[in-house]
Write a structure and sequence with these properties.
- By secondary structure, the protein is an alpha/beta fold.
- The chain folds into two domains: about 240 residues, 3-Layer(aba) Sandwich (Aldehyde Dehydrogenase, Chain A, domain 1); about 150 residues, Aldehyde Dehydrogenase, Chain A, domain 2 (3-Layer(aba) Sandwich), CATH 3.40.309.10.
- It has 15 helices and 17 strands.
- The strands form four sheets. The chain has a seven-stranded parallel beta sheet with strand order 10-9-11-8-7-12-13, with helices on both faces. A four-stranded antiparallel beta sheet has the order 16-2-1-17, with no helix packed on it. A four-stranded parallel beta sheet has the order 5-4-3-6, with helices on both faces.
- β9, α12 and β10 form a beta-alpha-beta unit.
- α2 packs antiparallel against α5 and α2 packs across α7.
- About 45% of the residues are buried.
Length: about 450
């Protein structure tokens, strides 16, 4: 699939309006932007019946059209989930303003001072599948960080997204901020056109399946922040606490199977397999988890009356986003690390062990944005990190990496102030020396 569309004049004009609105937003005070966030929280509470009704209709249509179970789970928005979104907006108010932070304050010479100061990126283009709650998270993170945002949700969530956007626009108008700061697109053609707006959009953030994210990455010249796969692993070391390992595996696989921080592969040291796997398999099967295993795991579980499907090479490469777990036994931690670094997506991988040195070795050597010890991979989340939700998770090596919150939505500029300083004074045989003294 290749994008051949070019941006339409209408969309280009709308994007230019969003950029201008974002420039005005960027120079507002912290208090004013926080006021907008509180107004959004209140507007969402007021509009909750309309939002939930719109979502119920989206879900009804999705059921008729046979939407995949993982996508349906992300689409569904109930009262509790909506209240969690509203709480997240208010949590964002309490976070520090990422704009205007002085990162470096340095005297270059007498009366010549340099500052590096954070500033908004400008306009974000965010394309997401199914999850209407992501719209609120992204829009409010953008407002807090002084950015404009153009949003495109999945076709299956269009009614929900429209209802949420109406509430956000109502709130922005109440506090005197242009609603153009937050735009919602609703057609596939607009998605393709958005990817061509390299002069109007500063960053594209895709959230969805690996096929979808790769399509976005391959069809735009705008910088893209995101990850194409969420293939996460849990390694149970020979020195693991068995009950702890069972609890962590259960949480990391079943608490939200379609989440990108859910484990897809369980690696087990062969020395603990006999003690762990029969108990663990029984627990997982009571939670409707389909197990697939390598030959040693199949043999072991067969001896305990459990038949499971053989894991193939393709299983190690697959993000199931469902209640399916592949299991592989390894002879040593080195083999577990080699497997993770071969098949992992550099998202989040964890070790269960009571040996701190083993854990340290694992965390140093696994190539991932998140490496965990004795805790569930499900903690790889911007809200749980205290970032005030997230716009996405980045598995690239260049920053930002991992869950991207406010700090990933700002860049910086250099302010240099002098009193008639010229560069020629610092060259030649009588060059003035730089003082390069850091200031408080």
């Amino acid at each position: 699939m290749t994008a051949h569309s070019t941006a339409t004049p209408d969309l280009k004009h709308l994007a230019q309006e969003t950029r201008e609105a974002a420039r005005q937003l960027a120079i507002l005070t912290t208090d004013k932007r926080n006021q907008a966030l509180e107004a959004i929280a209140q507007a969402l509470e007021t509009a909750a019946p309309d939002i939930l009704a719109a979502n119920a209709e989206d879900c009804r249509v999705a059921e008729v059209e046979g939407l995949a179970k993982p996508l349906y789970g992300r689409l569904k928005l109930n009262e509790s989930k909506l209240q969690g979104v509203i709480t997240g907006v208010r949590d964002l108010v309490r976070l520090p303003d990422p704009v205007g932070e002085v990162q470096i304050h340095r005297e270059l010479d007498t009366d010549l001072v340099m500052k590096r100061i954070t500033c908004p990126l400008g306009v974000l283009g965010v394309i997401f599948e199914s999850r209407p709650d992501a719209l609120v998270q992204i829009a409010t993170l953008a407002i807090k960080s002084g950015n404009g945002v153009i949003l495109k949700g999945g076709r299956e969530a269009v009614r929900s997204c429209e209802a949420l956007t109406r509430a956000i626009h109502t709130a922005l108008e109440q506090v005197g901020i242009s609603p153009a700061v937050v735009r919602l697109l609703t057609t596939r053609e607009e998605t393709l056109a958005l990817l061509q707006l390299e002069h109007e959009v500063d960053l594209i953030i895709p959230r969805g399946s690996n096929v979808f994210v790769r399509f976005v990455q391959q069809n735009t010249t705008i910088p893209v922040l995101g990850h194409a796969d969420g293939i996460c692993h849990l390694y149970v070391d020979e020195a693991a606490d068995v009950q702890k390992a069972i609890a962590l595996t259960l949480d990391a696989k079943t608490s939200y199977p379609s989440a990108c921080n859910t484990i897809e592969t369980l690696l087990v040291h062969e020395a603990i397999a006999l003690t762990l796997l029969p108990q663990l398999a029984e627990v997982l099967q009571t939670h409707a988890v389909e197990l697939r295993g390598d030959a040693p795991t199949q043999t072991l579980l067969a001896q305990h009356g459990m038949t499971i499907q053989q894991a193939t090479e393709e299983d190690w490469k697959t993000e199931y986003s469902d209640l399916i777990l592949s299991i592989k036994q390894v002879t040593a931690m080195e083999a577990a690390i080699a497997h993770i670094n071969t098949y992992g997506s550099r998202h989040t991988d964890a070790i269960v062990t009571e040996n701190d040195q083993t854990a340290l070795d694992f965390m140093n050597r696994v190539d991932a944005a998140g490496v965990f010890h004795n805790c569930s991979t499900r903690f790889a989340d911007g809200f749980r990190y205290g970032f005030g939700a997230e716009v996405g998770i980045s598995t690239q090596k260049m920053p930002p990496r991992g869950p991207v919150g406010l700090e990933g939505l700002v860049t910086y500029k250099y302010w240099v102030a002098g009193d008639g300083a010229i560069s020629a004074s610092y060259t030649g045989p009588n060059a003035r020396p730089f003082t390069h003294s850091d200031l408080k």
